Amino acid sequence: MTTQLDHGIDPAPAMLRCEIRQSKLYPSLVLALRDMRQANGRDLVTGAGEGNESWVGLSLAMIVLDTLSGPSPGHVGNSWDRLLTSHGIPADDAKIVYKLRCSLLHGYGPPKPSAVNNRKVLLTSDAAAYAVDTSTTGQVLISVPVFCGRLVERIAHAAPRNWDTSLIDTDIQL
Question: How far apart are CA 104 and CA 101, in angstroms?
């Protein structure tokens, strides 16, 4: 199934503002969003911009989703499924995204076909594609700029604010 909601049609999805602070104290989600945006070539504060195919940005997008998935009473994949499906992502696509997260975390690459029902996961920089497109037999196409700039940003904006808000000092002098 193709995640229709995350097609690159919406030029201005709702995004969290990640203001630059004088104090240099930031919640981890704000830092992860800012770093994802920077890696994707988008505005750090507003998230505006088309984005790019950065693997670092995609990895940081997975960190944002990890942060938003909350504590995991059991298998981490269950928290991911709950987060993604509660934001309109079909269950099959949610499983693919989780497998991509695991493969990026543990091997910095796409998952093996055997992990995603014998489909090859391909990443693209096409900003007019779907975030997750499973419409072609035997493959999954992930548009990195749409995934980061539309899907992750939309979920971050809509998610409850119960993520870890402890502050991280980005100006520590050793």
Answer: 5
pLDDT at position 2, please?
Answer: 47
Residue showing tokens 């997975």: 62
Q: How far apart are the first and last CA of the chain?
A: 50
Between the alpha carbon of residue 119 and those of residues 56, 99, 107, 111, 115, the distances in Å are: 23, 12, 18, 9, 8
Give the residue from 157, 83, 93 showing the smallest Cα distance to 121.
93
Phi and psi (nearest 5°) for 11? Answer: -75, -15
166: its two tokens: 């402890």
Average pLDDT value for residue range 30-34: 91
Helix 55-69 × helix 76-85 angle, to 10°: 90
Which of 1-15, 16-30, 52-66, 126-140 is predicted with the least confidence, judged by mean pLDDT? 1-15
Half-sphere exposure of 157 (CA within 13 A, CB side): 15
pLDDT band at 147 (very low <50, low <70, confident <90, very high): very high
Bridge-partner residues for 124, per DSSP? 143
Measured distance CA(58)–CA(40) in Å, rounded: 8
pTM of the shown model = 0.85
Amino acid type, 45? V
